[in-house]
Design a protein that fits this description.
The chain is 31% helix and 25% strand. By secondary structure, it is an alpha/beta fold. It has one domain (2-103): Rossmann fold, CATH 3.40.50.2300.
């Protein structure tokens, strides 16, 4: 089973519903028959770190991208995923695709 570390910003200026994005992502991975364990435990080893920033300021990147090591990161920045504009309703679909691509890559 793969694990994904969820990191949420403080939510001071949310442009998206961060919880709904995460729940829809979980459903998308379930529909893709991919077993993934999500955790907010920052001390636990994970395959992918998913940064859920509510706005484009992306304050989580300052904190977590510096400690990248060998982990893969995907960053949601309001209505953007890894610097690509995406309407909120499509964010979970894009995230599902990115996660499946990373988990299927030869480095895993």
């Amino acid at each position: 089973m793969y694990s994904i570390g969820l990191r949420y910003c403080g939510g001071c200026n949310p442009q998206i519903d961060r919880s709904r994005v995460t729940e829809n992502l979980k459903e998308g991975l379930k529909e893709a028959r991919t077993e993934v364990d999500f955790t907010t435990d920052t001390q636990r080893a994970v395959d992918i770190v998913l940064l859920i920033n509510g706005c484009m300021h992306a304050c989580l990147e300052e904190k977590y991208l510096g400690e990248a090591g060998s982990r893969h990161f995907i960053s949601v920045k309001g209505e953007m995923v890894d610097s690509q504009y995406v309407k909120e309703d499509h964010i979970p679909e894009i995230l599902t695709r990115k996660i499946l691509d990373l988990l299927d890559s030869p480095s895993h």
